[in-house]
Amino acid sequence: MSILLTLISRTLGAEKAQSLADTLYIHPALLAEEGPRVSRAVMAQALNMVLFDDLMVRVPAAAAYIADKRASSEKSVHDHGAVRTVDGPVTGALPRGQDALVRLLTPLGYRQNGLYPLDRLKMTGRSYGQVDFPEDIAQFFVSELHVDRFSSAFGAAVANVLKDSVDPLDAATVATLAAFELDGAVDLDAAVAALPVIARSFDRHHPAPSLTDYEALKAESAEMAWIATEGNAFNHATDRVPDVDTLAAQQKALGRPMKDAVEVSASGRVRQTAFRAAQVQRPFVDASGATVMREVPGSFYEFITRDSMTDDQTGAKKLDLGFDSSNAQGIFKMTAATV
Question: Which of 43, 131, 228, 290 has an alpha carbon within 20 to 30 A of 153's alpha carbon?
Fold first, then answer.
């Protein structure tokens, strides 16, 4: 068995590992690695597979779509996952803003390859690509919400929500990440121990918010309200498809909760659409201190078509792996619905 499938098997079980291998396109070179050490590229691929699996559990429309593809023996190309962070003075034990997640990505070979102002949302997005397999291992789109661009009342509500955040990383995982940074590979046992801890970093790390704080956040930023209930979880994962317009029409015909329009980048080379966010039950604390459940927007699943472009340095054709600020802000609206 390849070191990648061994790592996934020891993390999620052999059945789930095989299911993910049957579901997702994996570059043959990643499957060919046999160890005994786990390279940073294999670890990056494994992390994306674990996070993809988690999103399938949380987004029923995505699971149904993937089941259709598997039934027709068609694999999905996981293009990127998107996560949200908070650039503010109070984040509890977590590093501020994107640093909470970039500290995990850099040792696995990720480097920033794009900067995208999201001014309508008072956020900034940055894309990170894996340098060993830039077209084949999913990128991360990491956004920061800038608390200082909102009202003082909003800032106080953010501080209330995040002040008791905990850091999911333990000393052993920090050491494993440092070893990846230094050597580019670690022993299998260290990778097996670290993978679930790194994956848990893409989750919520603060207690259930109060209803009062949640309503204050929602009044100014649907994105921060989403972070209040979902934290740093995958906001969405993305399937790279040949023709997003045709796919959107097909999914609408099936009655799935598809976004009304396709977003087209300024270059015309990147086209995106998405399912609307799953509605999920989340805990809140009411005025009496009791825990109550409310339905709120959760995560969603996106679709993207990327055309080729000419490399300015070599003149060769390559896939346009960029993003677009307007597209991103349009896609972010999938979690703006409130009920």
Answer: 290
Give the DSSP letter string of 7-29: HHHHHH-HHHHHHHHHHB---HH
Query: Which is it for the CA torsion 193, 204, 233, 265, positive or negative?
Result: negative
Tell me, what's the pLDDT at 338?
Answer: 45
49 vs 311: CA distance, rounded Å? 29
Q: Distance between CA 26 and CA 46 in Å, rounded?
A: 10
DSSP assignment, residue 153? H
Question: Which tops the pLDDT comparison, 1 or 48?
Answer: 48
Contact 198, 110 (CB under 8 A): no
Start-to-end CA distance of the chain, whole Å, equals 47
Residues contacting 84, CB < 8 A, separation 6+:
143, 145, 223, 226, 227, 230, 232, 235
pLDDT digits (tens, 9 = 90+) for 28-83: 999 999 989 999 999 999 999 999 999 999 999 999 999 999 999 999 999 999 99
Spatial CA neighbour of 301 closest among 65, 48, 4, 41: 65
**Average pLDDT of every residue of the chain:** 96
